[in-house]
Amino acid sequence: MKTEDDGLAFAASIAAECSSPVRLMILRLLLEEGESRVRIMAEQLGVGESTLSNHLKRLRDAGIVGVTRSGRTATYRLADPRVGEVVASLLGAAGLAPEYPALDADSGLAHARSCYDHLAGEVGVKLTRGLVDKRAIVVDGDVVDVGPNAEKCFARLGAGLTGLPAGRKRSFMCDDWSHGDKHLAGALGAMLLQGLISKRFVESVPGSRELAVTSAGEAIFAEFYTA
């Protein structure tokens, strides 16, 4: 079981690797645009493929990026949602807030998608507002705590409040770049999305971060949406 010390050590290792501007650029690119291949990243960052591959190997060996191989093609991604949290915090502290691609307001990604391991998009924003209004969560700035009605509300959405992993923020507010608002993130946000998927309120769209809301999901979300 991971402890708080494990989480701090992992965060420190991420920060240490970010001491290289090239590695920080790689992580920023994967944070902002999702998984990518060496050739594409090299072109976007203006770095030679050999140099980029060496930096990716170091990040992979540190457990900061993961790779999926299909034949001779290697696709890289952030290995853990905590990586995105740390990188976003570092960029924010430096006045370099992550920049995300614009989405059509009517697109499926803008409606509902996964953001690391939690729910984002219009559905994520509206559901978070509903959880606040129903006093399931209490928000103070970007810090979130469970409210008096948390157990009942999260159970209704298929998520329990026990078994939250150590070493991560229990819950916090994450910027939703498609709607200029915030949605629930952290370990609690991850458990919420897992619950929604297990109850088939949302379903993954193959090859995309888009989430399709089922008819059962529309019905349950309507209970939480506020005007």
TrEMBL record:
Keywords: DNA-binding, Transcription, Transcription regulation. GO terms for molecular function: DNA binding. It comes from the Bacteria. Gene3D superfamilies: Winged helix-like DNA-binding domain superfamily/Winged helix DNA-binding domain (1.10.10.10). SMART domains: HTH_ARSR (SM00418). It holds the Pfam family HTH_5. Residues 3-98 form the HTH arsR-type domain. The keyword Transcription applies. This is DNA-binding transcriptional ArsR family regulator. It comes from Corynebacterium freneyi.
